[in-house]
Each structure stands twice: as C-alpha cells, then as structure tokens.
Amino acid sequence: MNTLNVTNLSKSYGKKMIVNDMDLRCSTGEIIGVFGSNGTGKSTLLQCIFGTLKANEIRITIDDKHIVPRNVISSKQIGYLPQDSFLPKGRKVREVIPLVFPNGDDQDRIFYAQGIHAIENSKVGKLSMGELRYLEVLLLCHLKHRFLLLDEPFSMIQPSYKELIKGLLFRVKKEKGIIVTDHYYEDVLAVSDRNMLLKNGKLLVVEGKGDLIIHGYLRS
C-alpha cells in the first residue's frame, strides 16, 4: 500500500482564504469523495496538490518521501483530470491514444477497452460529453501514476458513461488511490470509500447523504 499525505495546505486569493491549513490523506486501494458548494475550493484543492496552482503553503509526501510541489507533475506519481478537456480537439481518438501511450501493449489496453471501438475514428472535438469524459478517465487510469485527482468526472454526461467510469474506478482502485470531486453526489457516494466536505476552508468527515444534509450541502 502507498500513501499520499497532504498537510498544511493553505491557499488564499488576496485577503480571501479559500483553503486553510488543511490535511488530506489518500492510500492506494481507496476512493475519497470531496464535496463542496460552488466556490468553496474543490478545484483549488486538487490544483494545489497537482502543482498547477501555487499554494500559500503545502507539504506533500508519498510513503513519507517529500515531494516539492513544482516537481509533482514530473514525478509521474499523481495524475489529474481537470474540469476542462486536455485532449487536442482536432485529432481523432485513434491518433490521441499513441500520443499518451507510445508502447503497443499499452495502446491495446485502451483500444480494446469497452466503448472505444465505436469512437476511435471520431475527432475528439466531436465526441459527446460522456464519450470525452470516459476517454479522458480511461487514459488517466492506465497511466502508471499511483494516485489520481478527478475533478467532476460525472458532470453532464450520459448515464451509460457514468456506469463505465464507475466500473473503471472500481477496477483500478486496487492499485491506485483516487480523490474525486463532483456535484453529482450520488455518483460519488456510489464509488467512494471515505467522504469529506469542504466548508469554510476546512475538510469535514461525512459518512453519507445524511451528513451532507446536516452540514448544509444538501437540502433535506
């Protein structure tokens, strides 16, 4: 088992503190759901961990080995799914896969994955939201990175692709640790092992839908 530890994470914009001295731990073999209302800092949290956004303060360790934030991406231990697509819209799916996986065996795992044959000749920019999100999650899940940060993988996509993504996450969590945020809370609860609510710059432990209601994230 490998463990990602994020401690003392703080991030402010001007005088507004978004994340305040936060700690978060994730181990391989588990999926952690992070909930929060719009503007509470869920994406900020993930971006600070991944290093695309500079935190005021943060300490990151994997198995007690310190990683400097600017080196997180180059360490290839943490993968990140942003809300906006990161794939070239003008390239066909079958052209994109070799860009991510130069090795033929790795490519085959993607090409023969469920649902890919039907879209492999489509341009990325022509894919539906579900097709695109599934492809992106599929690519990330097949990287050798031990930890994945997924920002809204279920939002605005067809139910059939939600189920494909859920099945994929269940399979890869055996060897990866996954942190997922999404407003579609029922989809997150369906796959998560532990859940947190980001509120007032802090992470609160939540056991399920009832706690989300108690803390004001959901209406009763």
What this model shows, in words?
- The protein is α/β, with parallel strands linked by helices and 220 residues long.
- The chain is 31% helix and 28% strand.
- It has helices at residues 42-50, 72-75, 93-100, 104-111, 129-141, 159-172, 185-191, 209-214; strands at residues 3-13, 16-27, 31-35, 57-62, 65-67, 78-81, 147-151, 177-181, 194-199, 202-206.
- The strands form 2 sheets. It has a 6-stranded mixed beta sheet with strand order 6-7-8-3-9-10, sandwiched between helices.
- Strand 7 (147-151), helix 6 (159-172) and strand 8 form a beta-alpha-beta unit.
- The chain is globular and about 45 Å long.
- The termini are far apart.
Shape: globular
Helix content range: 25-40%
End-to-end Cα distance = 38 Å
Strand order within the widest sheet?
6-7-8-3-9-10
- What share of the residues does DSSP label as strand, in percent? 25-35%
Regions with little confidence, pLDDT below 50 for 5+ residues: none
The pLDDT mean sits at 95
Q: Profile the largest sheet.
A: 6 strands, mixed
Number of helices: 8
Radius of gyration: 17 Å
Record field, number of beta strands: 10
Structural class: alpha/beta
H and E string: EEEHEEHEHHHEHEHEEH
